[in-house]
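ingest -> validate -> predict -> emit
validate: passed (alphabet ok, no gaps, 265 aa)
predict: started
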Amino acid sequence: MRIGFFDSGIGGMTVLHQALRFLPKDDYVYYADTSHVPYGEKPKEEVKKYIFEAVDFMANQGIKALVIACNTATSIAVDDLRKRYDFPILGIEPAVKPAVQNCKGKRKKVLVLATSLTLREEKFHNLVNRIDHHDIVESLPLPGLVEFAEKLEFRPELVIPYLKEQLASLNLDQFGTVVLGCTHFPFFENSIKQLFPEGVDIISGSVGTAKNLKRILEAKEQTNDGTGDIIFFKSGVKVEDKETLANYKMLLEKLDGMSPITTGV
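emit:
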């Protein structure tokens, strides 16, 4: 079984990491559209064009299922992608529902951190309007975290000053749950956690997406027939240089060493 994973860059690794836990014997094609990253600050139609070009390429690689491991790409393209292709396509969206449920009775708010494009999209606003009956959800774009991640820059001494500046206008004591609404953001979970009061939960949708992928493929009896291989592509070019492959391995190992992110899915 060959499963495709797509993201604008390395953020989708955080979802791939979870899929490898649940489906370790399948094969994977990971496509990072590094020629056009970041997506979150670009016009919607431009990004949509890049997404369809990438998925067309991946379909030609023989994938039998696809995970859009990018909140921005999911919000603007997943419905149209499902109309074009006949294999299962899973997206990822900010985990607003479990976050709101987590804050029930705590008199605390939810803070969704994501890209500007994700937060502007109708899909996100519909999600919030459907779930947030008590007006407890706030949001904040953090495009700088995507840039840090793509540069493989995770040092707290650089990341935390950026976070402090962006969060300065908020009263952090009022939040009970923080939603990582971009797949790049779990790389910075420890830095984010340092800035919020003790007891604040950090939620990501990646675990729920991986579990859903396993559930769908097992129902189709299409799992566990590979060798666990991962083929990486960067904007249509197969990654073969040892340094880049070593960096990708490092990212997956970095995620192995992090504390599990709370998920309500």
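Residues 96-203 form a domain with the Rossmann fold fold (CATH 3.40.50.1860).
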